[in-house]
Amino acid sequence: MSRDRQDLGQLGEELACVFLKKQGYKILGQNFRTRGGEIDVIAKEGEMVVFVEVKTRISTEFGSPEEAIDERKQYKLAMTAEAYLAAHDLYEADYRIDAIGIEMEHDGRLKNLRHEKDVVGW
Question: What is the total count of domains within the chain?
């Protein structure tokens, strides 16, 4: 991954965390990795554990940021979320997987942020 894409992704995750905090979420962690995948942000909304996939784009030429979360990615997110719950003894926790799509201006300003809840469709 190029350094610019990595920086853009990191900026998007920071913006997502600020947004979630303003919405009353508590941030539990970021960048939880397993061999099978990664969760960008782990948060809590009340008693609900919320796993958040953050997609950041400068251009929507190839679709919206959230459209990058296809069935294969959804499966990886679900497996990684379950690994996080097991690693933290949260077997009984209610959880969901959300997506935050961020569009940035070319000059680095935030253009649009969308939060979609419960994006894994099964």
Answer: 1
